[in-house]
Every structure is written in C-alpha cells, then in structure tokens.
Amino acid sequence: MGQPNPVGVLDKAVSILHAVAAEPASLAELVERTGLPRATAHRLAVALEGHRLVRRLPDGSWAPGAALAELGRGARDRSDQLADAAGRHLVTLRDASGESAQFYVRDGSARVCVAAAERLTGLRDTVPVGARLPMTAGSAAHALLAFAPADEVTPLLPAASFTARTLLDVRRRGWAHSVAEREPGVASLSAPVRDGSGGVLGAVSVSGPVERLGRRPSPEVVGAVLEAAHAIGRSLR
Predict the structure, then answer these.
(1) Is the pLDDT of residue 3 over 60?
(2) Distance separating alpha carbons of residues 209 and 227, to the nearest angstrom
C-alpha cells in the first residue's frame, strides 16, 4: 500500500478549516461542506483540535480554534512592524532623493504599498498606502520577482512589461529601474529588502517624472535606495 500524499492530507485539513470559518459545523455538516468521508473528516478535525486550530463546542460541533487567531495576530503584528520600520526610513530616502518613496510587499500576483513618503512640493508620483499594483510592471515588481522561485515568475512573464533577462540583471546588480512601465512619464528605482537569512521581505522604491529621475539613474539615487533597503532590513533583525 502506498504512503499517504502529504499535500493531499494538507488540502483536506485546510478544507476543514474553511468549513468551520463562517460558522460552527457538526460532523455531518463537515462531511457535507468538504465532501470528505465521515471517518476522514472526524480524524482530521480531531488532529486539528490537538493543534488548537479548531475547538469543540459544548454541543459537539467544531469551530475555529485559538491558534488560528494567534497566527493571524502574529501575521498582522509582523506586517505592522515592517510597515513602521519602512515608514521611518522612507522619509530619509525621500529627502535624500528628492522623490516620493514607497515600500511594497508581494501579495500573490500583486504588490501592495504598505508605507509611503510623498515628495512635499512640485510634480510627484503619488502611490497611496493600500494601493494594489500589478507584478507585471514597475521596478518594484522587478525587485520582488528577481529573487522569487522560477515557478512563481514564469507564469507572470507573458503579460509582463519586462523579461527574464531584466530579472537576471536585477539579481546581478541588486537594484531595479524602470521607465514608463506602470504609468507614462514615470520612472522608478527599487531594491529588495532582505531579512537576516537573505529572504526578500519587500521592495523599497523611489518614483517620479522621467525628466527628474532620468532614463539612467544617478549613482547618488541608486546609493540612497540601496542604503534605505539595508537600513529597513537591519531594523527588523
């Protein structure tokens, strides 16, 4: 007899979590909502209960457990910590570069602006906090994808404004630059922010009119963006 497929077991366990997310479910309701055999649904619910991911109510039905809330709080705390750290350094980057600065994190096929510091006067590129932008255009997308696994990058390339070679160049030099990819007349420069193990947490960027940032970024602006990326990463270690 073959060994159980661990991914298949995980998928079934996740289906149990989804089944109780909206409202508690009896064992019969778990079977109905997940399509799992009764014995499988019961076995997985008991296992999830042991990890506090689900809990049993007095009437015997299953509901989300305390560990789910704890995991959610941990993720929010980490996200808030990252946004706070980025926000402090974006002000310095804005002042050093003279351009609006942003910090993005990846969310699937989109990137989300979680912190920003706008240029105080004159023409500027405004990206509000919370904005979701595609991963198929812009230097921040380059910086986030250049270090991602190939199986996550390849499906995005047919619709992208850049190529695999673009990402290889980003990996080589450590920063990304784009001109009019996301919006006509706008240029941007980005660098990945890494954690202590080298994983990419997000991308720090400056953006503004091509006339100011230029089609070839100045060494001073490149240096300011790289320093901001290092500073944000260091503050989180």
Answers:
(1) no
(2) 22
